[in-house]
């Protein structure tokens, strides 16, 4: 345990981190509930659920117990030609909660792979049926992950720039609002003859800066896609499992997507796992005596029994009345805080959906991921014992559902103070 910082620097390369100018890293030795503890004994409230994954708090005893039992029973088995109880049970349980047309579950390892599988399902289901449409429709500032396919369907940005030439062609549209909805529909119609599928983050675009848009506008776009035989991939990697106040963003929408993607909160944030679900007509497009029509995709750890068990345990906790009441309580408390923030001269575009609240810190500079204020704010909050990782000057809270009212109030107070501290910069 000694010298973790030094040893880390010698061997580790961290995600989304410029290693040359990286700040001092914080060794974490323990997690419990909403808190993470560093090697100096300082505790931090994890207000971003460790990159939006932790649902019920860290080291949850029930999930730990279930996974540990599974670990001693069956830790892993090849998922081609074999199956196991946790995978079957999890698929059964999950499908029951999804839109009625979702009928099959395909397992992978993370959000990006869930998206890759979804894209392959769309393109190959068309290919198998002799369809010629292969282009993909996405939102201009979408984020669907960091692997090549997922990058391709994400907005073009500094993150994707070095790979620009290698990303496949995507037709980008604006996120809908009541003012541009008709224009966006016109765009879709114009390209409908070449578009195989539309991929979108429903209701809130997380990585783009927690941009929230209207469920009814999305519904309209989905209707338009359906009319033009464009498949729909709903990426619920972030929105799934209660984040938006309902179990899934799908619960706000009447149209049904053809394919859905899940990860992040799926296992309660304990183990990496991705899921892609699909409607029968997608699945059926692969059924054939022709072996070439198989979905040739899989990962070594497809449907890992430990991850499936963690997901089963997490979903059990999620559906408990206590957790549902917590989600409602956080939502209400956020709403009240949003009203206060709206009156604050240094907070702009205050927005909220369920347990997610976000706003732009107004410091005279442009709203962007590279707005330097984010880093300063991040350190200020760390000092105050709160992990908040702004996206540039976009500040947000995505707390685990076990956070108490007092802990939330503590965070809100610190936010108001920090907004004042930094108003000059
Ligand atoms: C985080 C995220 C992904 C990518 O998931 P990873 O597990 O990080 O690969 C995909 N889609 C959305 C909407 C996300 O928020």
From TrEMBL:
<feature type="binding site">
    <location>
        <position position="298"/>
    </location>
    <ligand>
        <name>substrate</name>
    </ligand>
</feature>
<keyword id="KW-0808">Transferase</keyword>
<dbReference type="GO" id="GO:0009102">
    <property type="term" value="P:biotin biosynthetic process"/>
</dbReference>
<keyword id="KW-0093">Biotin biosynthesis</keyword>
<feature type="binding site">
    <location>
        <begin position="299"/>
        <end position="300"/>
    </location>
    <ligand>
        <name>pyridoxal 5'-phosphate</name>
    </ligand>
</feature>
<comment type="similarity">
    <text>Belongs to the class-III pyridoxal-phosphate-dependent aminotransferase family. BioA subfamily.</text>
</comment>
<feature type="binding site">
    <location>
        <begin position="111"/>
        <end position="112"/>
    </location>
    <ligand>
        <name>pyridoxal 5'-phosphate</name>
    </ligand>
</feature>
<dbReference type="InterPro" id="IPR015424">
    <property type="entry name" value="PyrdxlP-dep_Trfase"/>
</dbReference>
<dbReference type="GO" id="GO:0051537">
    <property type="term" value="F:2 iron, 2 sulfur cluster binding"/>
</dbReference>
<keyword id="KW-0032">Aminotransferase</keyword>
<dbReference type="GO" id="GO:0004141">
    <property type="term" value="F:dethiobiotin synthase activity"/>
</dbReference>
<feature type="binding site">
    <location>
        <position position="389"/>
    </location>
    <ligand>
        <name>substrate</name>
    </ligand>
</feature>
<comment type="pathway">
    <text>Cofactor biosynthesis; biotin biosynthesis; 7,8-diaminononanoate from 8-amino-7-oxononanoate (SAM route): step 1/1.</text>
</comment>
<feature type="binding site">
    <location>
        <position position="235"/>
    </location>
    <ligand>
        <name>pyridoxal 5'-phosphate</name>
    </ligand>
</feature>
<dbReference type="GO" id="GO:0004015">
    <property type="term" value="F:adenosylmethionine-8-amino-7-oxononanoate transaminase activity"/>
</dbReference>
<dbReference type="GO" id="GO:0030170">
    <property type="term" value="F:pyridoxal phosphate binding"/>
</dbReference>
<dbReference type="InterPro" id="IPR015421">
    <property type="entry name" value="PyrdxlP-dep_Trfase_major"/>
</dbReference>
<feature type="binding site">
    <location>
        <position position="264"/>
    </location>
    <ligand>
        <name>substrate</name>
    </ligand>
</feature>
<dbReference type="InterPro" id="IPR005815">
    <property type="entry name" value="BioA"/>
</dbReference>
<comment type="function">
    <text>Catalyzes the transfer of the alpha-amino group from S-adenosyl-L-methionine (SAM) to 7-keto-8-aminopelargonic acid (KAPA) to form 7,8-diaminopelargonic acid (DAPA). It is the only aminotransferase known to utilize SAM as an amino donor.</text>
</comment>
<keyword id="KW-0663">Pyridoxal phosphate</keyword>
<comment type="subunit">
    <text>Homodimer.</text>
</comment>
<dbReference type="Pfam" id="PF00202">
    <property type="entry name" value="Aminotran_3"/>
</dbReference>
<keyword id="KW-0949">S-adenosyl-L-methionine</keyword>
<dbReference type="GO" id="GO:0005737">
    <property type="term" value="C:cytoplasm"/>
</dbReference>
<keyword id="KW-0963">Cytoplasm</keyword>
<dbReference type="InterPro" id="IPR049704">
    <property type="entry name" value="Aminotrans_3_PPA_site"/>
</dbReference>
<dbReference type="InterPro" id="IPR005814">
    <property type="entry name" value="Aminotrans_3"/>
</dbReference>
<feature type="binding site">
    <location>
        <position position="51"/>
    </location>
    <ligand>
        <name>substrate</name>
    </ligand>
</feature>
<protein>
    <recommendedName>
        <fullName>Adenosylmethionine-8-amino-7-oxononanoate aminotransferase</fullName>
        <ecNumber>2.6.1.62</ecNumber>
    </recommendedName>
</protein>
<feature type="binding site">
    <location>
        <position position="143"/>
    </location>
    <ligand>
        <name>substrate</name>
    </ligand>
</feature>
<feature type="modified residue" description="N6-(pyridoxal phosphate)lysine">
    <location>
        <position position="264"/>
    </location>
</feature>
<feature type="site" description="Participates in the substrate recognition with KAPA and in a stacking interaction with the adenine ring of SAM">
    <location>
        <position position="16"/>
    </location>
</feature>
<dbReference type="InterPro" id="IPR015422">
    <property type="entry name" value="PyrdxlP-dep_Trfase_small"/>
</dbReference>
